[in-house]
Design goal:
The protein is an alpha+beta fold. It has four helices and five strands.
C-alpha cells in the first residue's frame, strides 16, 4: 500500500462574527488523494473550497479558528511541521489553482503585505525596501 499524496481528516474552520459568535466556514471535511489522482473541489462561492486548500498550504488567514485531526502531504505531518519547512513545499511540491485570477490576492491582507511575504519567500534581499519601492514609485521599479 502506497502513502496517499494528501490527506485531510476532520478539518473545521470558523470565523468570529461581529458579535463574537463563531460562524463555521468549513465543517468536518475529510478526504484522501491517492497518487496519480487529481482533485477538483466544486461548490458555491463561500462554501470553503479555498479555505480547505489554504489549510493544506498553511495559508489560512490569521483570524481563522481551525482544527484538524490530520493534515498530511506525501506522508509528512503538516500539523507538526515547522512553518519555514512547510513554506518550502508551497509552489514546489504543492499549490492551489484558483478558478478566477482576480481572486489571486488574499482579500484579508494588504497588497503590500502580500508583496513583502512573496519577496521574502523568494530570498530577495531587503524585501521591505523592494516592496516599498514597488508600491510607492512605479518609476523606481527598475532600480529595485
Amino acid at each position: 500500500m502506497t502513502t496517499p499524496l494528501a490527506e485531510i481528516d476532520d478539518l473545521q474552520i470558523a470565523f468570529a462574527g461581529h458579535d463574537g459568535a463563531l460562524s463555521p466556514a468549513v465543517r468536518r471535511v475529510s478526504l484522501t488523494v491517492e497518487r496519480g489522482e487529481r482533485l477538483g473541489i466544486v461548490g458555491e462561492s463561500g462554501s470553503g473550497k479555498s479555505l480547505t486548500g489554504g489549510a493544506l498550504l498553511g495559508l489560512l488567514p490569521p483570524e481563522a479558528q481551525w482544527s484538524a485531526n490530520a493534515l498530511r502531504f506525501n506522508g509528512q505531518d503538516l500539523l507538526a511541521m515547522r512553518p519555514q519547512d512547510r513554506r518550502t513545499l508551497c509552489g514546489t511540491q504543492m499549490s492551489m489553482i484558483l478558478q478566477d485570477p482576480k481572486y489571486s490576492l488574499n482579500p484579508v491582507m494588504t497588497v503590500a503585505q502580500q508583496m513583502r511575504e512573496t519577496l521574502a519567500a523568494v530570498d530577495i534581499r531587503d524585501p521591505e525596501r523592494v516592496a516599498d519601492v514597488c508600491t510607492n514609485s512605479p518609476a523606481a521599479w527598475a532600480s529595485a
